[in-house]
C-alpha cells in the first residue's frame, strides 16, 4: 500500500491524500482547493490523473477540502464520492457558490492580464461540473462501515469541526495482515457552542493528522459572549461605527449569530441592525437547521426554550447583491457578518475595502487565516493593505477573537490523539499546517510517545 500527498503538505490548504491499495485501487482522501496568493497553478494541475482515481472520500465540506471536486470530475473522475449526509448538504451549497465566485474573480483577473498582454487563465470549473460531481455522491452515517473494494472498508467518526465533519478510519486486509489508517480531516474543539465534541476513534497503525495549530494554544476565553459584546459596544455604541466580521459561512457564522441571539434574548445586545450578508451563509444556516442531529445537548435545549438559535429582532439575512452593495453607503452603526472567513474572496472583501480606512470601524477576525490571505495580512496590523489591486490605509481597528476558532490547538490535538496507544502507531503523518507549527508539534508528539513522525512535502509518497 502506498500513500502520496498532493495538498495540505507543509501548508494549510488544498487537502489531497492519495492511497493506492495492494490491488491497485486508488482512493483519494479529500480534494481541496488551494487558497491564497500564487496558488493558481496548484489548482490547475493535480499531480495525478483524475481518470485513474477510483474512489473519493470527503472528510468535511470546507472548500480547502472539497473545492476541487468538480474539477476532478471535469477532468475525468467518474467514481463514487463518499461523505456524511450533512457534508453533502453543505457541498450542494458551497460548491455552486465556489463556481460562481471563481467565474466572477476570473473575469476581473483576466481583464487585468489582458491589459498587460499576459495569457488568460483557465476557469477551474463551472456550475455544470458541480452538478455532475454532486450526482456521484453517496452518503453514509457516522460509524456505518462501507466497502471500497473487497477487503477494504471505511468508517466515519465525528470530529466536531463543522457540521458533518468526520475523520476517516480505513481497514485494509492484505496478504501480510490487516492494516488500519485514520485520517483526522480537521479536528474541532471540545465544548463547541453548537456541535458535539470530537469523538475517540479505534486504534490505528497509521495516522494522517492535521496540525493547523500545532504550535499554538488558544487564549483562554472566560466569557466569549462578553468579549463579543465589548467589541460591539466599543465599535457601534462608542464610536458609532460598523463592525465587519469575515466569517466562514458554515459553523462560524452560525456560532456568531447564536452568540448574538443569546445576547439579544438576555437584553444585552444594543438595538442595532445585524446583517448576515452572504447567500452561502444564508443557505448554510438553513442546512444547519436541517441537521440538528449534529448539535450538542446545550443548543438543543436552547432551541427548545427560545424556538430559534439563529433568529432575533434586528437580524437580517441578505442574499440580494444590490442590498449587499447598499450596506457600503449605509450610515450609522451596524454589524456585518460576511464570507469568506479568510477575507480572501466573496462580499466581505468588498466590505473591508469600503470600510477599512474609517477609524470608527472595526474589522473583527474570528478564525484561522492562511498566511497568504487578506485576513492574515490584516492580523499583522499593517499601515496599508492592497485589495482588488488598490492600496488602502488601515485606519479601522483590527480585533482578533481566537475563541471562535474551529481548529483544536496543540493541547487539544494531543488530547484527541490520547485514544491511541502511541507505540502501536507505526507512522504518523502531519498535514494541514505550516512547517514551523508542524516541527513544533512533532516534538510534542515524540514526547507523548509516538515514534515515527513524518512531515510530507508536496507530491511526496510513502510505502506503508
From TrEMBL:
Can you give the residue ranges of the Beta-Casp domain? 253-378
Keywords from UniProt, A to Z, are: Hydrolase
Q: Which Pfam family is one of this chain's hits? A: Beta-Casp
Note the Gene3D superfamilies from the entry.
3.40.50.10890, Ribonuclease Z/Hydroxyacylglutathione hydrolase-like
Source organism, top-level taxon:
Bacteria
Q: Does the keyword Acetylation apply?
A: no
InterPro entries named in the record: Beta_Casp, MBL, Metallo-B-lactamas, RibonucZ/Hydroxyglut_hydro, RMMBL
Q: Keyword Hydrolase: yes or no?
A: yes
The Metallo-beta-lactamase domain extends over 13-227
The name of this protein is: MBL fold metallo-hydrolase RNA specificity domain-containing protein
Classification from the root reads:
Bacteria, Pseudomonadati, Bacteroidota, Cytophagia, Cytophagales
